[in-house]
Amino acid sequence: MSVSTNYLKLALIVSLILSICGNYLDNDQQNRSVQEEIKESSPIFKRSAYYGKADGTPFKNCKEILESGVNISGIYEIQPIGSNKLINVTCDMETRGGGWTVIQRRIDGSVEFYRGWREYKFGFGDLNGELWLGLESIYHLTAFEANELLVELVDKDGISAYALYDSFAIGSEVEGYYLSTLKGYSGDAGDSLSNHLGQKFTTLDLDQDQKPDGNCAEIFIGAWWYKNCYESHLNGKFRNIRWPAAYKYKGIVWFGFKNNEYFLSQARMLIRPKY
């Protein structure tokens, strides 16, 4: 066999290896691009008017902004403890003393909440309307300092109720963003979240619930800290009176306030540091 023939074979082998490596890198880059595209499309990460401290460092949460003398509800930019990202949040500076960060809001059905893991991780929706802040942001806001949780509910007849928890936190993504801390309930809506304590977050494409024969997120059309399956589900399908009876268990639900045959028309979840 000639030297030129051996060289040609070697060149073909090298070319094949480079092609395989190139495809792998292209696929890896494509996966990262998809993840970045989802992240960049989230309003949570888009730049807004910046409100920082006098020394130029960002605020950690809405309560810090309130304590700086800013008492107008609106969209602000913060950097939660443990995060290297600036994020946009909706701050409620009026309810129960103010300083609340809105982490979830349902008001009119304008935003689809039946979404996958990546979108629930990074957040989606409209900071002035329906939104999910994002599990990663909620983790950074709750994991490093004590927070209370306020849940506000309105039924289809306009009757309101609330549930206030003295302590609330979730775990990291590696831990499935599980509901790690929840205690100290008070209010008139009933405690319909404590049953979910310790449960990982389940989405349509990542089943982490305890139901052995199905995915609760698929069955009830929305992501949540499902057990088997729920006593509350605030990310369910937004319903109206024209919905068929088959959907009666798949709306926005808080058992302690109304059972799952009676849908809620509004829901809001807010957190605030305890210090």
What does this molecule look like?
- Residues 53-275 form the Fibrinogen C-terminal domain.
- It comes from Diabrotica virgifera virgifera.
- Helices cover 23% and strands 24% of the residues.
- It is an alpha+beta fold and 275 residues long.
- It has two domains: 3-41; 44-273, Gamma Fibrinogen, chain A, domain 1 (Gamma Fibrinogen, Chain A, domain 1, Alpha-Beta Complex).
- The strands form two sheets. Strands 1, 2, 3, 4, 5, 6, 7, 8 and 11 form a nine-stranded antiparallel beta sheet that branches. It has a two-stranded antiparallel ribbon with strand order 9-10.
- The model is unreliable at 7-14 and 20-28 (pLDDT under 50).
Question: What distinguishing features does this structure have?
Answer:
nine-stranded antiparallel beta sheet, 275 residues, two-stranded antiparallel ribbon, Gamma Fibrinogen, Chain A, domain 1, globular, alpha+beta
Brief write-up:
InterPro entries: Fibrinogen-like_C, Fibrinogen_a/b/g_C_1, Fibrinogen_a/b/g_C_dom, Fibrinogen_C-term_domain, Fibrinogen_CS. Residues 1-22 form the signal peptide. The chain has 275 residues and is an alpha+beta fold.
Any chance you could write out the topology, listing elements then pairs?
Layout: H1 3-41, H2 62-67, E1 74-78, E2 87-92, E3 100-106, H3 117-122, E4 124-125, E5 131-132, H4 135-142, E6 147-155, E7 160-170, E8 179-187, H5 216-219, E9 232-233, E10 253-254, E11 264-273
Antiparallel strand pairs: 1-2, 2-3, 3-5, 3-11, 4-5, 6-7, 6-11, 7-8, 9-10
Signal peptide: 1-22
Keywords: Disulfide bond, Signal
Organism: Diabrotica virgifera virgifera (western corn rootworm)
